[in-house]
Amino acid sequence: PNNENGNNDFVVDDRIYNDFKSFVLKKQSKGNLKLEEMFDDKHLLESVQTISAQTNAQGSSRIQSSVTNLREKIVQDLLSDFDASGGIIRSELEQNILAWQLPDSVMIGRSLKS
Known about the structure:
Blueprint (H helix, E strand, L loop, with lengths): L13 H17 L13 H12 L4 H25 L1 H16 L2 H10 L1
Helix pairs in contact: 2-3
């Protein structure tokens, strides 16, 4: 990411961004990443499903199905945000990639410029 002058002109280009999107999609589809947990960090959806199953309440299967559909909708919305929020995501990727490779002083200077 650095040139000879020590300046940093690294950017997340289309190839890197598309690789990241593919990585996220693959992890989500394999179950190694659960995007819906970004909105359900207290695992409320899982609790609703568990309580519904344990009580054998009337309509339990409908509740379970509704929670599953809600999870799928959350994931679809998050994945569609890749396109709508591309600039923000690219910027975050750049910052995170560079944070691994550059000293803090360079990162601070870079953030002051933007």
